[in-house]
Design goal:
mainly beta; about 150 residues; 9-stranded antiparallel sheet; about 45% strand
């Protein structure tokens, strides 16, 4: 009987969670080419799973499909307008380190945006402000499906 009760509870909790599969359509940003920063388009093969987190401090998390480690941990859930806004550094958030990534999802339009500002302005350990070895700041947009 205890197993059946646990199973019913698990199914009701799981079906109550709002999970989304998000697929990038377009990606654009900047990269250092030869001696200057240039506008660049990036591949759009990224797919994300937005799901309820197991951690009380973070109601939602965003992971790349195929990787269990979240890229973004969301400090708040969806607001009354149906928006999920996450400013995060993924697992580094648990250490209090935020690297400035941003992920937004609109429940009504099922569109998302991910902003990755790494590179160009970052002065962090291991980055000696060397443009040729800097990251490539970029933005991705795409659509989501509730799963």
């Amino acid at each position: 009987m205890r197993i059946i009760t646990s199973l019913i509870f698990f199914i009701s909790v799981s079906s109550h969670a709002e999970n989304y599969l998000c697929v990038a359509d377009k990606a654009s940003g900047f990269q250092f080419i030869k001696s200057t920063w240039e506008v660049a388009n990036f591949t759009t093969d990224n797919k994300y799973l937005v799901k309820a987190s197991d951690l009380e401090k973070f109601p939602y998390q965003v992971s790349e499909i195929g990787n269990d480690i979240p890229v973004i941990m969301c400090k708040q859930g969806f607001n009354s307008g149906g928006f999920l806004h996450c400013d995060s550094g993924g697992p580094l958030d648990m250490l209090g380190i935020v690297v400035g990534e941003h992920f937004s999802l609109n429940q009504k339009s099922l569109r998302f945006m991910r902003v990755v500002p790494r590179g160009y302005i970052n002065v962090v350990p291991g980055n000696n402000i060397s443009d040729p070895s800097s990251g490539t700041p970029h933005i991705e947009i795409g659509k989501c499906s509730q799963i």
